Amino acid sequence: MDQMKQEMLINVSQPEECRIAIMEDGVLEELYVERTSQDNHVGNIYKGRIVNIEPSIQAAFVDFGVGRNGFLHISDVEPQYYRQGGLDPDKAFDAEPATRSGDAPAEGGDAEGDAKRAARRRPRLGDRPRVKPPIQDVLRRGDEVLVQVIKEGFGTKGPTLSTYISIPGRYLVLMPPLGRVGISKKIDDEHDRRVLRDIMLDLKPPKGVGFVVRTAGTERTKGEMARDMTYLLRLWKSIVRRMRKYSAPIDIYQESDMIIRTIRDMFTEDVGRILIDEPAAYERAREFLELVMPKYAPRLELYEGKEPLFHRYGLEEEIGRIHQRKVPLKGGGSIVIDQTEALVAIDVNSGSFRTEKSAEENAYQMNLIAAREIARQLRLRDLGGVIVNDFIDMRKEKYRRGVEKALHDAMKRDRARTKILRTSPFGLIEMTRQRIRPSLRKSIFRDCPTCTGTGMVKTPESMAIEVMRILQLSATRNDIARLNVTVHDEVATWINNRKRREMAQFEDAVHIQLHVVGRESVSPEHLVFEAWDSTSRTVRFP
User: Fold this and answer.
1) How far apart are CA 243 and CA 252, in angstroms?
2) Which of 259, 491, 499, 538 would staple 463 via disulfide (CB 3.0–4.6 Å)?
3) Quick one: residue 332, left, alpha or beta (phi over 0 = left, psi -120 to 50 = alpha)?
4) Can you give the pTM of this predicted structure?
5) Residue 142: closest CA among 241, 53, 82, 45
6) 492: left (phi over 0), alpha (psi -120 to 50) or beta
7) Least-confidence region, from 86-100, 153-167, 253-267
8) In degrees rounded to 5, what are phi and psi of residue 255?
9) How far is it, in rounded angstroms, from Cα 385 to Cα 471?
10) d(Cα 274, Cα 221) in Å, to the nearest integer?
11) 96, pLDDT greater than 60
12) Pairwise pLDDT comparison (49 vs 342), residue with the higher score
């Protein structure tokens, strides 16, 4: 099979899980995993009800019908909620078209990504006030609000919400009630920006709704843009009708499934083929392509090979390595990735990597390789939050700047927002990466019930000492005649061999019959006491 530059492989042979891999020159560059058992609310639109206002953190908690209240900060409240008493759907479709003068401030809307990315950019557009009023002056308990989920909940935290609604299409993002035409910041060619703005103004979008052109819209025809605009306007009208009809809490709009979402957001002309291994999913994708991108529909293929799709491309082994702590690098070096509650720490090790040049040059070349792999691993593992990269120390300033540039360049293809700081005096490069969903590891693994996620358990010696301490407590009790201790086999062996004399002395001193039971099938930290009095009645201990 000839290797194309880019291929999108979609594995849905297991109904509980959908996996999408993007290969570039035979290398796995991006991986998306979604399970039906997991909450997937990002991008969905709900009509919710305010259940609580917290002035101390300038936030409201919203019941939007999913069982967990959402978090709505004042910075994510659309100004119309305090300028006009809320979003008025009746004003959403004024027949007057947008004007050329009206769209000028709408520069900089970054719509390259999911609804969350677009929504979070919205406060920067146009003439919105920089100072928000107190949330207690804007919203009241019981108010109904139209909200969109921009971030899944983590742990005990509920989902993060925004009233800046954005609905992505293939080439455009609909942003009611922006009322202007904007161009993605990632389209930096002035000629392309001018052409796209002229096309949008010629299409005369209704006043009261706004659009931002995505990077996928570059070099698209007026007909293609018109088709996308018509689709989005029809979708928005159906949302408005549903919003008028039902009271909160109710779901108003659900994002497309991951297959449609990924094709819509990630497909470019560089993708030579899309392979799907399940007929029903293939039909859904084909219908979407024929509706939105009929020119590229022939690139979609149904994989009918006997060997599983991801095995055919050697991806299963690659995906297995994603979850490993240590990632080997070309030439002998490695990076070590540790996730903590607060941040992600990445350490670069030179290992056996050597060049014929100086130690400084050797460190520089190793760091360049590591920077590219770090960016790839962050995408594959979907790591977010604060990330600290500990590169190999370099004294020369030009080498430090070179590593920073390499990391910046490698992160450009990442759809998540990132911010990278300069190298610290300790040789660390700190950065943040947008967190929308739990990392891939959090989605696939759970904390070990034995070590509770620490990765460590007590040694047999430590457990034996703990047993002896608790036994000393029984000496203060007059109602215990017989005592059984159940522990792991290794702990029982340690006690019976190393503590035999102390156990005998204890029995003689307190007149308690002791029996240590070892079990192989229990946790290394398993420790259970059973006590009886002289009449064989169970006694509570310790």
Assistant:
1) 7
2) 491
3) left
4) 0.73
5) 53
6) alpha
7) 86-100
8) -60, 155
9) 46
10) 23
11) no
12) 49
Cα dihedral 65, 160, 238, 204, rounded to 10, equals 170
Q: What is the largest CA-CA distance in the chain?
A: 99
Find the mean pLDDT for residues 51-77. 91
Mean pLDDT (whole number) for 322-340? 89
Residue type, 253: Y
pLDDT averaged over every residue in the chain: 83
Beta strands at 513-519 and 482-488: parallel, antiparallel or unpaired: parallel
What φ, ψ does residue 186 adopt, rounded to 5°? -70, -15
Residue pair 273/285 in contact by the 8 Å Cβ criterion? no
SS3 527: strand
| Residue 333 near residue 366 (C-beta atoms within 8 A) | yes
- Report the pLDDT averaged over residues 364-376: 93
Give the type of residue at 319.
I
Mean pLDDT of 462-491: 90
- With a cut of 90, say whether residue 532 has pLDDT above it: yes
d(CA 418, CA 433): 4
In this predicted structure, the answer to whether residue 248 has a pLDDT above a threshold of 80 is: yes
Q: What is the mean pLDDT of residues 32-48?
A: 84
Return the pLDDT at 84: 52
* Helical pair 222-245 and 190-202, crossing angle rounded to 10 deg: 60
Question: Would you list the DSSP string of 224-252?
Answer: HHHHHHHHHHHHHHHHHHHHHHSPSSEEE
Q: CA-CA distances (angstroms) from residue 479 to 56, 473, 474, 486?
A: 55, 12, 9, 20
pLDDT for the residue numbered 83: 57
Report residue 322: phi and psi, to 5°. -60, -35
In angstroms, the Cα distances linking 128 to 75, 82, 149, 341, 383 are 11, 12, 22, 36, 32
